[in-house]
Amino acid sequence: MNKLYIDGENFLFKVADILKSAKLIKEKSDITKLKISQLKTALSRQDKITKVQFYAAKLHKYVESKSLERKSEVLIESQRRLKRYLTNDGVEFTISGHVRLQNFLPAKNGKREQVLFKEKGVDVRLAIDIMADVCDKKVKVVFLASSDSDMIPVVREARKRGAKVIYVGFATQPNHGLIATCDRAVLFRDDEIKEAYIVANG
To answer: What pTM value is reported for the model?
Structure first.
């Protein structure tokens, strides 16, 4: 089996940059539909992908302020809609880890409210799944859609155990460490990302 593993938050952050630059969205939470199956086809020119797994963290509702409560509700609804769309598009959607409120400073003395969320646990689950699949001989080719340098040791171990690892990144912001560590790299062009969004939302 050849499998595409997508680090959801990492992947969507970069997709959002492209779509915001093209004025297709205003916020990352606007991404509730994205034609992953179309992107999968672009990746499968040499090694056909047979399974796609998308990893996302569990979101929580916060009530420290009205605006924070509304923001967390928007994020939760956005993830719910994205999960439904991707599942219908043949993607396995895995919730692992959590998005926690790391820092909150209420609006004061004319200063805007400051909010910082931190994702925990997704990269660990992603790494465990890759190594389990490789060690159990379930996967021959790993397509890794993550630009997190913490994945470099996982790539090395997977390759030691006979798996072929392909880095899936973005032409505008590739991770050169992962490019050097993987067997090869496939980099999405901005127009491919925009087309996958437009097709899904057309």
So the answer is: 0.89
